[in-house]
Amino acid sequence: MALVEITDPNAPMIYNGIYHLFYQWSTSGAVWGDIVWAHATSTDLVNWNHHKIAMVPSEPFDIEGVWSGSATFIQGKPIIQYTGIIKSNQWNYQVQDMAVPKDLSDPYLVEWNKPIEYNPVIKPTDGINASAFRDPTTGWKGPDGIWRTTIGSKVGNNGVSFLFRSNDFIHWNKAKEPLHWAKDTGMWECPDFFPVAVDGKEGLDTSVLGHSVKHVFKVSLDDTKHDYYTIGTYNPKTDRYTPDEGSIDNDSGLRFDYGKFYASKTFFDHEKKRRVLWGWANESSSVADDVKKGWAGLQAVPRTVWLEENGKQLKQWPVEEIEQLRTKRVSLRSQVLKGGSVLEVLGLTASQADVDVKFKLPKLKDAEIMDPSWVNPQLLCSSKPASVQGKSGPFGLLALASKNLEEQTAIFFRVFNHQNKYVVLMCSDQSRSSLEESNDKTTYGAFIHVDPHHDQTLSLRSLIDHSVVESYGVDGKAVILARVYPTLATDKEAHLYVFNNGTENVKMSSLKAWSMKKAEIKYLKDLKHSD
Ligand code: DQQ
């Protein structure tokens, strides 16, 4: 079988009650290349039908590649904008193209037309670097009735998101000033730009403006392969986005995910009034192993995103529909976990599970004093893995663990006292996740700002699925997706534990866990992907 490699989510949307996800699919085997737009639909974001390929390179304006793009609804009808690679003397010459459904009455929108009379709709004019000009966002309409879209690029080594305007979504003009840019951040791939409500969790349509919204700007940094966002203000008159001073800013912003998560994209689900985030996680295994298993890359569980009450960061949570996969539930009673304790959670399929554990926020006086030089959470987690005893913590979960704990993925918290304020470190420690040495077992970490008046508990929810552990810390304030490849802790041999390796006791107020069944993934008859 040919290797199936999937990468960026493209043009996620909901149309007539059906969710669509397109994604970059490499048809050239183990290495990225010969991209097509694969297409799947779902009524619940959990169970999926794969349709035939939606777009392949076929026209002069995309003959060398159909790269990432987004969907926008114009008078209720979806239009896709994507990056086409054209034949040119210049390497990787990028333009923006549009595609429309062939038959709007087809509930699955299987066939897509690329109107030859209009394409390409945007060219890299005005001195734009033609090999760094890609990934149009979902469009938004200003109060002047004019459509906008923004496209990732770089000028020298500065990351830039150029702005284009159009009356009809076909003819586009470049704005003089970019929507946003930042020094020395390299190429900006897959920008995403959307409003969030100042109050409440409800998602907003991409064109919503006004005093009760803030804007989120996200880029995928080609140099580091991480997605960063800031919270800020969008001025529709000047068409400039300005990140807030107070938005917790760490180099280029905050991360949607402190593990593996790239080329992400949101869409507004008007039926459930929520904004849903998709992101791609690549493998941490060797190419030889990927070839052996026959696939590489996956889409993370879609997440609902909204603005945290303090307005400084987003919160994320797995879409509620994922809970329909829960089967048998087990729980542990509320109890004190003494320092050094390891407790097995029995009675579930630990290789495929949804775990929700809550710890009482430890007392500040019991926390270790934070060293001011500890500024990088990932480094701190690597230098203090689960095996290193602390005061308040490490405490958390050992997922995908073998019976004698030779293999384990530890997801845990450490609580520090920094000038009489809490700093909570969340870690996902992959260093012991597999006896196989060729995997990338980097440990990931994030600092979580807790406010003892609001955050009385430190919750940790982990979705465990064989080679994926997606962990949500403190009600979704930080998320870490890890890829792991246990050799012993597989299927029925996988175990789950809760542990406390601090010297202080910690109160576990609840632990609920569910075995998860498989989602239904169908390759529609006659519409099968050809290998
Ligand atoms: N992947 C696409 C590009 C995008 C990159 C090509 C991000 O459009 O910039 O497959 O992973």
Strand percentage lies at: over 45%
Radius of gyration, in angstroms, nearest whole number: 23 Å
Beta-strand segment tally: 40
Helix percent reads under 10%
Largest sheet: 7 strands, antiparallel
Going by helix content, strand content and strand pairing, the class is mainly beta
Overall mean pLDDT stands at 95
So what's the overall shape?
globular
- Terminal Cα span: 7 Å
Question: In words, what does this structure look like?
Answer:
The chain is mostly beta strands. 3% of the residues lie in helices and 47% in strands. It contains two helices and 40 strands. The strands form seven sheets. Strands 26, 27, 29, 35, 36, 37 and 39 form a seven-stranded antiparallel beta sheet that branches. Strands 28, 30, 31, 32, 33, 34 and 38 form a seven-stranded mixed beta sheet that branches. The longest helix has 7 residues, at 287-293. The radius of gyration is 23 Å and the shape is globular. Residues 526-531 have low confidence and may be disordered.
Secondary-structure topology with pairs:
Elements: E1 4-15, E2 18-26, E3 35-42, E4 48-50, E5 65-74, E6 77-86, E7 93-101, E8 112-113, E9 133-134, E10 140-141, E11 147-155, E12 158-166, E13 173-174, E14 180-182, E15 188-197, E16 213-221, E17 226-235, E18 240-243, E19 254-255, E20 262-269, E21 274-281, H1 287-293, E22 295-296, E23 298-299, E24 303-307, E25 314-318, E26 326-332, E27 335-337, E28 341-344, E29 352-360, E30 368-369, H2 377-383, E31 395-401, E32 409-418, E33 421-429, E34 444-448, E35 457-465, E36 468-473, E37 478-483, E38 495-500, E39 506-516, E40 521-523
Parallel strand pairs: 1-22, 4-40, 30-32
Antiparallel strand pairs: 1-2, 2-3, 3-4, 5-6, 6-7, 7-8, 9-11, 10-11, 11-12, 12-13, 12-14, 15-16, 16-17, 17-18, 17-19, 20-21, 21-23, 21-24, 24-25, 26-39, 27-39, 28-38, 29-35, 29-39, 31-32, 31-38, 32-33, 33-34, 35-36, 36-37
The site of 2,5-dideoxy-2,5-imino-D-mannitol has 13 residues, from strand 1, strand 5 and strand 15.
